[in-house]
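Lab notes, practical 5.
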Amino acid sequence: MTPDARPSDRPVDLLVIGGGINGTGIARDAAGRGFSVALVERGDLAGATSSASSKLVHGGLRYLEQFEFRLVAEALAERETLLRMAPHLVWPSRFIMPHVPALRPRWMIRAGLFLYDRLGGYHADALLPGSGSVRLDRPPYDEGLQARYRHGFIYSDCRTDDARLVIANARDAARLGASILPHAELVAAERAGGLWQVQLGGGKTLQARAIANVAGPWVKEVLNRRLGVPSADSVRLVRGSHLVLPRRYAGEHAFILQNDDRRVVFMIPWEGRFTLLGTTDVVEVGDPLQPRVTDAEAAYLCAAAGRYLKQAPRPQDAVWRYAGVRPLYDDGSGDPAAITRDYTLRLDVQGQAPVLSVFGGKLTTYRRLAEQVVDRLAAALGERRRAWTERSTLPGGAMPAGGLGDFMQQEIVPRYPWLPQAQRDALARRHGSELPELLGDARGPADLGEDFGGGLCERELEWMLSREWARSADDILWRRSKCGLHMTADQREKVARWLGG
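Output from the prediction step:
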């Protein structure tokens, strides 16, 4: 089904409200089980929380201190599943934790990492290597660090492109028959005749047998006001802010830095030329659609990194700031950092028109969450259908046994030797095994159309417009790619003019 397809006049089995990672994952899972699905999103896909994360697929090492063992175990299992599903969008990374005896004793960290490995099912043939001890006063881990840090620990997790993971799920859902409708706001819905009667913006209507309310920060508003369903459950909106800095150290390893408030801050290589620094945990009291990194948060992040780096970063060094609002399930905790990252599913059934609302959740566990949501809604509809996504592949993920590296050497480099390596690598990260389809029979740069700079060409831009629901320059430069980071202001404006023309 094409990106601009619309649902038929017949009722759909499932209406999904929300185009973030959980919503698109649910739409894909349900469509693959043979349900008719429509997904509505009032803005762009991944337009809020799902494009403003720390770009990690991980178990959450720090959640062990909060005794979130079930969540960590599920997340670690999903980490390996996503590595297989989308090796171009999820890739292994080694994380270094410098040891600070005053914050956590060595035995505690070793015990935590031992448990982390075991919860993750570590064994000799695991996709990711286990944890261990490292010296930080020797290459390759001494680069950029203060000399006083001599000992540390190393473990494995994964990095990801969060927004493109959303797009991949949406594209596969559409391939399986789902109608994906960004820029379509749910105005109201009510139960009548055993169905949901749904009003969308622009006077459009549809009917649905069931609804999955995955509206993120707006989940309670949608449930109570748009659907008219009372609920005592609520979310706590917690802002996570990030700074993008010029590269602070060599190497592809990331750092997890202990702070004196017992939180941790990640320092992650990003987009080749940059270091991503984040995140904070601050209660959001403003508009969750447009969160802002405060000066206090920027100073906090820089101070946390400055405790470890030879050259402390300054807030004014950041080339970009972004913040995302996590819609965490309100468990009554007074400390934003201690609020559970687990998800809660609430099913309301009246007659034959169920609605299931998702409170909380993590990017890493989206596939498992989607599976549980569809299981429960299918049962409520009296139609049990087997789950299927655990061993599936997302668009672009059909790689040879050697992964992305072998794919590049076997398929891309011989066929497109004229592509600059930086652009070639970035395109492969974005499109994976679909890259030959995008590049087609191009024999040189001229065949790719206009060069906008920053690694973005006209052919890729048109692909994003025709296949990925992109509309605006922001959709393309900051979500479906990060080309905006590598462009001048004039180059970004050139993209906006091309789209406007």
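Observations recorded by the TA: The mean pLDDT is 94. The chain is about 30% helix and 25% strand.
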